[in-house]
Amino acid sequence: MQLFYAPGACSMGIHVLLEEIGKPYELSKLDIRGGENHRPPFSELNPKGKVPTLVRDDGSVVTEYPVIAYHLAKANPEAGLLPKSDEAKLRAAEAIDYCVATIHMQGFARMFRPSNYNPDEAGHDAVKAQGREMAEKGFAIMDKALAGKQWVAGDYSIADSALFYVAFWGGKRVGMTLPPNVGAHLDRMLARPAVQRMLEQEGISV
Length: 206
Ligand SMILES: N[C@@H](CCC(=O)N[C@@H](CS)C(=O)NCC(=O)O)C(=O)O
Fold this sequence. Notes:
The chain is α+β, with helices and mostly antiparallel strands. It has helices spanning 11-21, 42-45, 65-75, 86-112, 124-145, 158-173, 180-190, 193-202, and strands spanning 2-5, 26-29, 53-55, 61-63. It has 2 domains: 2-80 and 198-202, Glutaredoxin (3-Layer(aba) Sandwich), CATH 3.40.30.10; 86-192, Glutathione S-transferase Yfyf (Class Pi), Chain A, domain 2. 54% of the residues lie in helices and 7% in strands.
């Protein structure tokens, strides 16, 4: 198993899951700022040019965060990363989709890549502000979902690593004040040995 990642990118969440699982895997770093992800050989492996990208032992490639997370949890049941009940599985999937498709791809994508939304540099501050508002709304929704709970879907699961990477960007990278339950969840995640190993391996300081 091989994970293509970029330090501090959304691939952090999948990297955490691989560390939770604890089986050997290979880490391959990509320079996404330099565009390495859009050039061969990586672009031949994953023409989407995105991390996280997982290459399985049979050489097959799995892309898209929610799918990679689900696949890893399903393929490694002993790690207990998939909630047990159908209702908790549904809530975990709902939270993952919201963190990835809305908080990340709608909110942070505008903050990190405003030129994808407006080629005119004069409009970039407005795009970033809109993205921040979207992410803040997302964190407020996740805060309610976490009320009275340690983890998103009951026991610790793949949903927690999805919330982790967006909350990490919010709280530790762009200086947002996270709502209390999301902030406490981030602290709980940062205390996990798997998260600490991931941060060390990616060379990220908190
Ligand atoms: N929908 C994808 C999104 C992945 C994504 O946007 N990854 C970013 C890093 S956080 C990336 O690879 N960006 C590089 C680029 O688009 O050039 C997923 O769920 O995995």
